[in-house]
Amino acid sequence: MAYSNENAAYDLSLFDDELNYSAAAPKRRHDEEEHRRGRKKQSQHNKVVKLPESELMKNRRRRHNPVKLVMGGIGAAIVTFVIGIIIVGQVQLTELNQDIITAEQTLADTESVLIQNQMKVESALSDAEIEKHAAEVGMTKASNAQKEFVALENSDKAEVSEQKDGNIFTRFFESLGNLWS
């Protein structure tokens, strides 16, 4: 049973299945309740709107805008193309990095072989072999006959005397020089 408040904004009694809200609610007369129940059943039956089946299918069917479909397809194609370019770029970058790593390993191996060959050549050439090769070419060891002595002549020597009395600038520079030493 609902309160009878005609000033209320909503009539909650239309939504009630129970007869009483609480024990403190005022009780209505029996005929008033039957009258309300009957009106409630009639109002619920009148509130249902029935549409024909064709209208229902028309409302359920989704209307697609062709411009939106084309723009969505173009956008998806662009996104797919950009992602494809990124993937191809990453693959090429990975391949180039592998080529660089392979080239660096080849360079390191070649440098190692070069150093080994240089050490073999240096160890194979002894002093005796070098002297033998020089003799074959026509070279000889240095001897006293090949040495020439150069004598320096005693030449005239000149001494320049230094002036004790210098001008003010030379004394100033000398005093600065003495500070640093």
Characterization of the model:
With 181 residues, the protein is mainly alpha-helical. The protein is built from 5 helices and no strands. The protein has helices at 30-47, 53-60, 66-124, 127-137, 168-180. It is elongated and about 150 Å long. The model has no long low-confidence stretch (mean pLDDT 78).
Number of helical segments with 4 or more residues: 5
Largest sheet: none
| Helix vs. strand class | mainly alpha
Portion of residues within helices: 55-70%
Strand content: under 5%
Tell me the Rg in angstroms. 58 Å
Index terms:
181 residues; mainly alpha; 5 helices; 0% strand
Strand-helix topology:
Elements: H1 30-47, H2 53-60, H3 66-124, H4 127-137, H5 168-180
Quick structural summary:
The chain is mainly α and 181 residues long.
